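pasting for ref. prot 1 ->
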Amino acid sequence: MRVGRGSSLALVVAVLLIGGLVSAVVYDAQRHNETHYAAQLMDRHADVVTEAITDRVDHYSDTLTDLALAVGAEAEPRADLYERLTAGLDVARLPGASGVAFVVAARTAQVGSVQRTWRTRGSAGLRLTPAPGHDEHLFVVFDRVFDSSPGVLGLDLAQSPQAVEALRTARQSGALAISPAYQLLRDRGVATPLRQTSVAFAAPVHAGLSVGGADTFEGWIVMAVRGQDFLAQTLIDRGQGAIQVSLADPAAAGAVIAAARPGRRLTDDRLDRERILIVGQRRWQVSMWPTRRLMAITDRGISMITGGSGIALTIMLAVVTGVLAGSRSRALHQVEQATAALRGDIDRREAVEARLREREHELHHLAFHDPLTGLANRQLFYERLTHALTTRGERFIAVLFIDLDGFKEVNDARGHHAGDIVLKTVAERLHAGVRISDTAARFGGDEFAVLLESLTDVGDAHTAAARAVADVQQPIDITGISVTVSASVGIAVHVPGGADSADDLLRGADAAMYAAKAAGKNRYVLAEAGR
């Protein structure tokens, strides 16, 4: 009798140990799958957020650059002209922007003459206030304020090292520059808890652009932008509440420019993400962390259900084994029932794994395709171009780099919904105009690319580019309103025996596209040999 009881106890212990081990292994595998899926979701959110930040900065940069060109095109900038040029700018169009100013440089000995000059140009009441301890000054001579903050007319930006750095970089490079993160001079009177970390966009103004001669540096168009108002809502919208985001300037002691912290952050280093952006000749760091909402999307509860089911089944088997150990026939019957339950549990686990595989397939598609148009994204395009070059044989390969002309005007006038319709329509036309062996892709914004493989000669690339130009310029219907855009297309061709890399072809096509724009837009240009 004692031997029988000992055998029963040993059998129960064995069932508990084996069942617990199997449940732990299955739980660990299921949890690993969920973590992997969550990591893929974090990668997708990171790409979407960084692209949204870049798009927002590009929009502000384009606006400021256009204003600088308009001011520089005038023989003598005046206050009334500046007021007209900036009349359409406000916080609704440029969230976070406190105002836009025209800044000129002057030495201490020139302050009086500079003040008289700009007063005669309509800046009534201008009073220049040189910053002490500086011989070179940066005076605001025109100031258009967007909000209720005090104006800075006559202020000397030389007292702000961050603004000075941005203006110096913009002048030396001849292109827009963004300052390090800092507190705006016009916000000095704001209570400390309400102050935001800000940046300044600076675009150089050159006169003489309309006469074809050597241009003359006149000054800068400067836009002060408060970081949280600038990007916080964008970060929340694009993050969909599933992630927390922080945008910082590493060169400014890691100052946080903008942040969105919805929900409750989860501590898991495997899911944290960082991206580096180069905008306005500066390096920004985007840090992202998962929240409980992201974990809910990944159905993390499945692992708990699976593990709990395994433990419950193990306990049930142990109890059944212990109770029925003394009766062989009854024990065999109960074991058959438990085996059937185990098979059902295995079927359920297999069904869960099948659903996870389907979701992984969907995520893989999202990782390599543009979510708006469905076209291949930059990463997939680059991989296919690289593969085509390694298997090129004796056939020609061409890359078309396409940038839409007039898209910005449609987007600004009709809104982002209209802009999305235009991008989708153009994507459909480009996709319909290429062969099944070719690849049409969207690189972001209003930029597209087409990979043409196995061409007979360069003429095939010309034909494809002409077709793209013709297709894009066809009218597009937006809720009953017909709009049109055109395309500037750059062509780069790899000839048999050539040593071009994927980067070489992309750079050549990009340069040719800008040449097409410079030549009047709505056309295509073939890249020069060696570019």
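and prot 2 ->
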Amino acid sequence: MRYLLCLTLFVSLTLSSFAQLKEAAPETVGASSERLKRIDNLLQEYIDKKWVGGATAIVVKDGKIIYYKALGLSDLDNKTAMKKDAIFRIASQTKAITSVAIMMLYEEGKLLLDDPVSRYIPSFANQKVLDKFNEADSSYTTVPAKRPVTIRDLLTHTSGIGYAQIGSKEATAIYAKNGIWGGIGVENGMILGDKIKVLGTLPLLHQPGEQWTYGLNSDILGYVIEVLSGMSLDVFFKTRIFEPLGMKDTYFYLPKEKYSRLVTLNTEDKNREVVTMKESLNISGKININYPAAPGTYYSGGGGLSSTALDYAIFMQMLVNNGEYNGKRILSPFAIRMMTTSQFDKLNWPDTKMGLGFSLYTDKSVARSPLSPGSFEWGGMFSSTYWIDPKEKLVAQLFLNQYPNSHGEIHDKFKVAVYQTLER
């Protein structure tokens, strides 16, 4: 009888964690309702000090939503209250979705991770590596690459490809001269494949696999997905990931009926207080800040999506469920294991390793953070952050939509506020 009761409880807990996300009393999963109020206090403090304009935050434990709130304003000038279904520019949180899409094609036998990118995009053949650079006219000399850039290099940001607009001075200058953008707010009519083909002809910043350089790697992966699937990236995401998971508010370019839910992008004044961003964002070239609420043709796998707190929580829950959500399997548990296993450890942050699309917490890095070993995370340019803690079966994220943000410590304080609620 005891065995049957334990088995019934195990099956019940397993099924609930794989079912559709629903709100539940925190105490049912070992969290404290009273201590969850500290998240409210933290976010409200930053809003009251005019350090951020508004936020949505969500915390899921054991497949149950234990915190899901919106605070502050979604539009400072019009004093519009933030709502839980507000749509945010998630920028580099797009990368995780692109990485999952690549692993789907991997499991379908369409590619191997150590395949050369040139197998799918011929312009990446016979690549060169930057040797000397002349700032005066952006001219340069090169040396041959020791080996081809691979799909794995792109997933781990070790290809030697940098970022346009926000990267190094060399990458910014060379890419600008060749019409390469960072992927966010690009001009309507620009096509992903056209720019990626050009990118393949430009020099790498270092030899493949030897260093970690944040760059346009996920945009290249997005085009690989288009080549292998025969679909545009937006159609692949919609039909293969968003619709199966029930993610109803995640888009590259929003339908008109959802424009009003897009949060206004904020910036800072000279006193480091939050204000509405009035003009185009100027980072080595003007970026249309209202790009999600306009027609577009460029599907950036590195930063182009907009989403809601709930939609992205669904995606994260699929990952913590080892590739399955609400009866829909996106990836096998083995693919999730590969993605969350260290692939490269020479990062710019101590004791942090790189998986296939995420940074990973190690036994050493958790000495400085409440996250468990094996947790993985990333964030977005507009002050968003998320993490997944498989050991605690916990996912959490915070959306702010602000650039720049001099008060970025709010992300670490949010992590502390989440974990201090857990009582078992």
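The chain has two domains: 22-90+235-276+296-332+364-420, 99-231.
Residues 4-15 have pLDDT under 50 and may be disordered.
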